[in-house]
Amino acid sequence: MPEDILSQNEIDALLSALSTGEMSAENMKKEDGTRKVKVYDFKRALRFSKDQIRSLTRIHENFARLLTTYFSAQLRTYIQIHVATVDQIPFEEFIRSMPNMTLLNIFDVPPLEGNIIMEVNPNIAYSMLDRLMGGAGKGTGLINNMTEIETKILTNLFERSFDNFREAWTGIIEIDPYLSEIEVNPQFLQTISPNETVVVIGFNIVIGESSGMINICIPHVVLEPIVPNLSVRYWMQSNQKESTPEQNTELEKRLKQTTLPISVELGQGTMSIDEFLSLQVDDVIPLGKRIEDPLQVRVGGIPKFTAQPGQVRNRMAVQIIGSLNEGDEDDE
Prior knowledge:
By secondary structure, the chain is of the alpha+beta class. The protein is 36% helix and 24% strand. The protein contains eleven helices and ten strands. It has a six-stranded antiparallel beta sheet with strand order 1-5-6-3-2-4. Helix 3 crosses helix 6 (148-168). It is found in: Bacterial flagellum basal body; Cell membrane. One of its GO terms (biological process) is bacterial-type flagellum-dependent swarming motility.
């Protein structure tokens, strides 16, 4: 195993400590000789690498921006949402961290198998409900037994928010999330085993004077088929994907409808400023071209064709007689 290499600052700090007597050479030898043991908890097995956690963070930061716009429009007030934490913990620990009564949105994300849980703090849930009912957005902080009307209102609100979840994951996989059920007691959740590793993304949300957390719990078994996609290499490759035949057809269709300025150059001439200021009606300006010489047709300012002048139905026109390749203009 390669040894750690000290930086120049660390070397200077050690020399300074030795010279001042803060540290002795014997103590350094003893510390170097001791074994360095790191505690590993097999109940909290880390299934995701730091690179994959960063990818999940980026995805849900985008989701937070989309949710901010969505909830601001639905609740007709200013909302602040940002990612606060991203942790991987056992499912049992996630259950214990929640209050006894809270709002749990359980939704499926086909084609991935399994459930994803969105836990909404009671204070935030009732603030949203109060805003939707025309109130100022004050939360009671307690969830006992929601009425059917309250459940239906919140169900509609969160079901439409899943479109933003779908959009946030588009760069990784096309999913079709839908709400399967709403629960208020965490003890009734029997979706996965207690020791299963889950990723918990915590969002801090502020609605007016109320604030709280929204937690999204994603089990490892749900993300397992797409874990390789949660890497920087995949993100870089996905940005270089070739366009599909349908995209090429649509692009060609739009290009054919694009308008371009076309001009015909009759010739070129030079004159002095004094001659230019002395121009009068009926004066003739020599253009340095013979009548039988072809004219140059410019498309978007670039020479593309040669033509000859003519007339069509009492209107001036030109007839294309040839095309110009790159460099033909310089050869003339």
